[in-house]
Structure formats: structure tokens, C-alpha cells
Amino acid sequence: MISVKDITFGYSKKKAPIFKDLSLELNSGHIYGLLGKNGEGKTTLMKLMSGLRFAQSGSIETMGFPAPFRNPNMLKDIYFLSEEMYVPAVSIDAYIKAFAPFYPNFSLEKMQDYLHQFEMTDMAQNMSKMSHGQKKKVLISFALATNTKIIFMDEPTNGLDIPSKSMFRKVMISAADDDRLFVISTHQVRDLYSLIDSIIILDGGEILLNSSTEEITEKLLFKVVDSIEEAQGALYSEDTLRGIYSVFENTEHLENKLDMELLFNAVLCEKQRVKEIFNLKK
Ligand code: ADP
After folding, report:
1. All residues at 6 or more sequence positions from 15 whose CB lies less than 8 Å from its CB, including other chains
2. pTM of the full predicted structure?
3. Whether 60 contacts 67, CB under 8 Å
4. Element (H or E) spanning 171, and its range?
């Protein structure tokens, strides 16, 4: 659904590019978590895939369209939920009237359903007077109600309190289906737990990992061990009060549960070994 081939991109010619020969394939029916530290280029990569920025070389095809051409047939099926929110001083109703016409498959019924799930029921409420979290809930509901085939969400859980984060995961699951593709960027790795089915880790301008959660637990074993001896041979370990949280290569194909934060730290610490385990070319 999205094919990124050998792109190079930088904001300034004077500085080293953020991405050099970066390639990536994303398919419909998945919720991807795009993980990376602050400033690694998650927002930039999503902007490139949605035609909001242009690569200096390489190509990006989104739903079969070259992304930089911004074909209206592509744009009507993409929604980009930005981290900075633009909210005019109007009611939710007026916002829908103004912006829904850009999305031919927009569903008012679904918008109301998502708002309801977020416990936001007053459609006459002025959006500029809402709290940061409330604005975010309206915009997340709007994004999902557009029924676009692709939704990019940039740090959507920023500014949401703990109950709202779990509401977000529930709303997302109710909106996901086999035809849609979600890319959700975050540096708060734990927020996406239980929601995403595929993980992309971006670091130092390259993709260190692009795998389904299923493949990750097939290849890696997340285990809490009691002693340093037991942690021998681990790719990565963290000593905590509850034991030594470790990541091993899953050579015996044992069933286990993914720990996203541990995965993230392991991948950043052991880049080369992880690439070899997942057969990624250098
Ligand atoms: P992330 O989303 O992972 O935090 P960004 O894509 O926002 O990262 O930024 C990647 C890098 O590009 C950062 O070093 C940032 O400072 C820089 N950058 C982002 N937007 C611009 C811009 N409009 N002009 C110049 N540099 C930018």
C-alpha cells in the first residue's frame, strides 16, 4: 500500500540528510507503531509518505500514486493527524461541516460513536475552549470517521491522561479493519501496547526493524530471570527490582510476550545483531 524506495531527504543541504537510501514497505490491514527517539525523523517520514514533503531522491508510492504528485484520489484517502493541533473557534458540528467534505467516505454516525466512546457528547461545544486532551479526542474521532484508507497519527497519545489512553486504544481497535492502514508514531513506547500489530524502529536515519509482533516473538524471547548467570547470552538485559528483564534470541521458538520498551532498548543497543536475526540487509 505504501512503498518507499531508496529515499534521501534532508531539510538543509548544508547538513547531513536525515534519511539516506531508506526503504520501507507498509501493507493494509495493519496498525504500525513507528518508534524512535525524539528527532529521529518519524514525523518527517510520515510527511514524505503522505506527500507533504518531497524526497531529494528515490521514490514513494502511496496506494499506487507517486506521493509527491498529491493526486486528489490519493489525498481523499489519507488523513494526517498532526501532533500540533489546528482547532478553529467553532463547535464540533461546524468543524465537521467545514472539513468533512474533503473526505467522501466520512461517516457522521461513526464520528458520534467515537466521540461517545471518548465521553464527549456535546456537539455544540466550542473547540477552542476545550482542554488539550479534549481537542485531541475530537480530532482523533474525526480522523477515524473520515474512513480514509490510510491514517497517519503523529504522537496521538501526547496530552491524553491514563484513562483516555486506554479509551484511545479501544476506539482504534473498533476503527481498524483489513482495508485500512494505520501508522502511529510515538516515543512513548508503552502507550501503544496491545494496539499495534507491527513495529517499525527508526534510528540514525535507518529502519532497524520492520516486523509484525508475531514475528518478533518468534525470533526474540522476552523473559525475566533471577540471576546474572541466567541472563548470560541475552542480547539485552535490564536489572530491576522484580528481576532481570532480558531479551534473548528465541532459538527454541518458545511462546512468550512482547515487551515493547525492552524491545526498543534491545534494538538500539544491539543494532547489528538484531538486523542479522531479522535478516535485514545492512
Ligand atoms: P521526530 O518526529 O522523530 O521527533 P522529526 O521528523 O520531527 O522527528 O524531525 C527530524 C529532524 O528534522 C530533527 O532534527 C528536527 O529538528 C528536524 N526538522 C524537523 N522539521 C524541520 C523543519 N521544518 N525544518 C528544519 N528541520 C526540521
Report:
1. none
2. 0.93
3. yes
4. helix 162-175
Helices and strands (H and E) in the chain: how many: 9, 13
Residue to mutate (ligand 1; options 18, 34, 189, 202; most atoms within 8 A of CB): 18
Q: What's the full length of the chain, in residues?
A: 282
Which cell is 202 given? 527508526
Q: Does residue 280 register a pLDDT over 80?
A: no
Pocket test for ligand 1, best of 11, 38, 83 (most atoms within 8 A of CB): 11
Over residues 190-240, the pLDDT tens digits come to 888 788 999 999 999 999 999 999 999 999 999 999 999 999 999 999 999
- Cα angle 188, 33, 247 (rounded to 5 degrees) comes to 75
Residue 126 is given by DSSP the state: B
Reduced to 3 states (helix: H, G, I; strand: E, B; else coil), residue 153 is strand
Which of 212, 88, 81 is closest to 150 using CA atoms?
81
Question: Residue 249 in contact with residue 222, Cβ under 8 Å?
Answer: no
Q: Going by C-beta distance under 8 Å and a sequence separation of 6 or more, which residues neighbour residue 275?
A: 208, 281, 282
Measured in whole angstroms, how far is the alpha carbon of residue 137 from the centre of its chain? 17
